[in-house]
Sequence to fold (344 residues):
Amino acid sequence: MKCGIAIFPSKKIQDFANSYRKRYDTHYSLIPPHLTLKNTFEVEEDQIESVVKELHKIAAEIEPFPLRITKFSSFYPASNIIYLKVEPNESLTTLYNKLHSGPFQEQTEDAFVPHITIGRDLSNDEFSDVYGQLKMQKVHFEETVDRFHLLYQLENGSWTAYETFHLGKEQG
Amino acid sequence: MKCGIAIFPSKKIQDFANSYRKRYDTHYSLIPPHLTLKNTFEVEEDQIESVVKELHKIAAEIEPFPLRITKFSSFYPASNIIYLKVEPNESLTTLYNKLHSGPFQEQTEDAFVPHITIGRDLSNDEFSDVYGQLKMQKVHFEETVDRFHLLYQLENGSWTAYETFHLGKEQG
Fold:
């Protein structure tokens, strides 16, 4: 089963992100606005409960932390993705690292750049237009992250939530 | 916040349902295939944690139970909805009743007909064609339900998972 791990920000942020995603993000209908903590990884169906157990342990080790969004940014020229930039903080980075080490080790050369995608697969011209406007805009959201979700992907590319993990107050 | 409560069946059933929903269900991109336990209800944002607490209590009172799908069916003539019929059983009915009494009391005159919608908003002709074919087909799925989810609705009509509730093994 293809799994992924993500934070869903508050409805307010999701509605804000969707106002852009509707026009600019080809994944708009596949998953709600999210911050990816771990990209697609394969889990055998009979291994899912042991993955869940490990994730509960990890969640218990990290207290709820702030999520701050400060501006629009982009991965250009590496890719044409436009996103809401999430300010890195120690808890978020620690959580990411735990989800990429031990039983969750994987080969990745990407640095962690926490973000909520709002545009992708745009033509170069469209990218320049849209990003040119967005990067001048002020954005400010601040809230507390107290949970993350394990999701699995259906054959049509969409994602279904499997389990919720609460930061700090887990029983392991 | 508009909330709802649903069971997501296994990936296998969801993929099967989506093969029809893609063509016949206008809600295809708003939510993965699901069995609705409680239709949209309003929860104030500062009340959500007390709702969550109540739902954990209810989940703890019901053991995991079988989900059996036996055929396609329809609400015609009340509506043109086509669905995968889920065999009622005592646990499922008890769960439904608990989600519609006490703090979750609501005015409803509908009997509980457990189902997974695969078609809606079809014209009369299309409905007759599609349902005429589907109702002759054999379907058989059987699995165990061990959880349900509280979801909330975004402004675009799509649903985001908020929390998972495990049947039986909850700590309340």
Notes: The first strand of chain A starts at residue 2 and ends at 7.
